[in-house]
Design a protein that fits this description.
Helix 8 runs parallel beside helix 9 and helix 12 runs parallel beside helix 13. The protein is an alpha/beta fold. The longest helix is centred in the last third of the chain and has 24 residues. It contains 13 helices and 19 strands. It is globular and about 60 Å long. The protein starts with 15 loop residues before the first helix and ends in a 6-residue tail after the last strand. It folds into four domains: 151 residues, Rossmann fold (3-Layer(aba) Sandwich), CATH 3.40.50.12160; 80 residues, Transcription Regulator spoIIAA; 119 residues, Transcription Regulator spoIIAA; 56 residues, OB fold (Dihydrolipoamide Acetyltransferase, E2P) (Beta Barrel), CATH 2.40.50. The strands form five sheets. A six-stranded parallel sheet has the order 2-1-3-4-5-6, with helices on both faces. Helix 8 links the parallel strand 10 and strand 11. It binds 5'-deoxyadenosine and iron/sulfur cluster. The site of iron/sulfur cluster has 10 residues, from helix 6.
């Protein structure tokens, strides 16, 4: 998608030090001023927000969760479905009000939404109280833009991706489990999806840079890392170094970090070698998120997914057969333009065959500029909602059945923090990515512990810590 009114990306350098120097982030103008950040969308955005927090804290800002106290508000936005847009515009209405009482408040809108012409133009014409607008390709310009801030709206969004940056100062949300980007962008151009337009072409990070990051996270005490990319299985295809995701995964496993996860996998790029590596290394978790999108080969073709229903099921079965105790979750879209009853029945049929551990399900949302948005859609909203409910019911029944199979078993759990389910509980995940709420004290946070599963629900397990007693 071209943004005629916005700038083309300039060639980028790759080292943090250069952008820090260029942005003169040593200024004391913002020392102890407060920032409030709100993140919408996927894990990629969550991790981008860790970069944004790093930039703000380099400038002297400190975090607040109280919007009323904030000197600067950053919305890191998502474009994947229309409801993500609606939420941001709704929140901007609230911020406009807030700014009436606090005219010095700096409001920034960044991430995926401004990457589309219509949103960038709308922010310009209808939301002049937004001070700073930046895109996904120039997050690292945010520091400079804030320092230039003088209440005139600044819009800097690049339509073309630049180089890959290294050595960012992330302020990570967790000291136990860390996100590690292995690539940016996506070249798959599924016909319904806005990501290749908002995040640009696929750019893989060099393996040595990723390994260096994982090694330093391990040294800093992290027990888990999640390798992040829109399509991690295509890692390395845009580089000339002859390595791929299987090579990377194997090398990450050899760093000895306790737990390795990765999201998201595209079935088309999933190789046998990847399955071998996942099965071989104890520290690669037996959990795969493998988006199906639809069970109808007719729709899969219209979606540009490059596999048929049969090929998906064959891959699914191969993974199940080779990786002991693996858990597999998926994404499914209902109501793709003109999805027939038969198409939908085929989706249910694949769910019945695969019996996924879980699924994220969505009603199709037309995205401006994507090929699918041009298809005239005759399906009623009611049909789409009914299908979503029917699908969710089926998915939930399998999730519950999978979870019930854990009853009475003892599982290794990485404890991540206090649980929302009670003041004396903590939560963590099994190797297979099952959420467990555990009776127990906070001293287990940040530890791998053994837990006996005492109850199973559709979306979580309950458990009790195994206490070893001396004879
Ligand atoms: N409408 C609905 N769901 C979508 N997804 C991506 N684009 C759309 C869209 N236009 C879903 C896919 C993807 C997940 C992250 O979001 O299922 O895997
Ligand atoms: Fe979107 Fe398809 Fe790329 Fe996933 S693989 S980010 S659905 S274009």
């Amino acid at each position: 998608m071209n943004l005629p009114n916005l700038k083309q990306a300039r060639l980028r350098t790759t080292k943090k030090v250069e952008y820090l120097a260029a942005a003169n982030l040593k200024s004391t103008k913002y020392t102890n001023k407060k920032y409030y950040i709100r993140t919408y969308g996927c894990q990629m955005n969550v991790h981008d927000s860790e970069e944004i927090k790093g930039i703000l804290e380099n400038l002297g800002f400190i975090p607040t969760t109280d919007l009323e106290q904030a000197d600067i508000v950053i919305l890191n936005t998502c474009s994947i479905r229309e409801n993500a847009h609606d939420k941001v515009f709704g929140f901007l209405g609230r911020l406009k009000h807030l700014k009436k009482n606090n005219p010095n408040l700096i409001i920034c809108v960044g991430g995926c939404m401004p990457q589309t012409d219509s949103v960038a133009n709308l922010l310009k014409t209808k939301y002049p109280f937004v001070n700073i607008v930046f895109g996904t390709h120039n997050i690292n310009d945010l520091g400079k833009m804030i320092l230039k801030e003088d209440q005139k709206q600044q819009i800097e969004v690049y339509s073309i991706e630049g180089n890959v940056y290294e050595h960012m100062d992330y302020v990570r949300d967790s000291k136990i489990s860390a996100w590690v980007n292995i690539m940016y962008g996506c070249d798959k151009f599924c016909t319904y999806c806005i990501v290749p337009y908002t995040r640009g072409k696929q750019r893989s990070r060099k393996m040595e840079d990723i390994l260096e990051e994982v090694t330093s996270l391990k040294k800093a005490g992290y027990l888990e890392i999640t390798l992040l990319g829109q399509n991690v299985n295509a890692y390395g295809k845009d580089l000339d170094f002859g390595y791929n995701f299987a090579t990377l995964l194997e090398n990450v496993a050899k760093t000895g970090i306790k737990r390795i996860r990765f999201v998201t996998s595209h079935p088309w790029d999933f190789t046998d070698k990847m399955i071998d590596v996942i099965a071989k290394y104890e520290n690669i978790m037996p959990y795969i998120h493998l988006p199906l999108q639809s069970g109808s080969s007719r729709l899969l073709k219209l979606m540009g997914r490059r596999y048929t229903k049969e090929e998906y099921i064959a891959l699914y079965n191969k993974i199940k057969a080779h990786i002991p105790n693996v858990s597999i979750t998926t994404d499914i879209i209902v109501g793709f333009p003109n999805e027939t009853n038969e198409d939908f029945e085929e989706t249910l049929e694949v769910v019945n065959k695969c019996k996924f551990d879980g699924a994220f399900t969505f009603i199709y949302s037309p995205r401006e500029g994507t090929p699918a948005a041009l298809i005239k859609d005759t399906l009623s909203k009611k049909t789409k909602i009914d299908r979503l409910h029917q699908l969710n019911e089926l998915i939930n029944s399998y999730s519950l059945a999978h979870n019930q199979a854990y009853l009475g078993k003892t599982e290794e759990v990485l404890v991540l923090g206090p649980s929302e389910k009670g003041s004396n509980k903590v939560y963590g995940y099994t190797k297979t990515m099952k959420l467990v709420n555990i009776d127990g004290a906070g001293e287990d946070i940040g530890k791998l512990i053994l837990v006996t599963i005492t109850a199973a629900k559709s979306f979580s397990l309950d458990g009790k810590k195994v206490i070893f007693t001396k004879n």
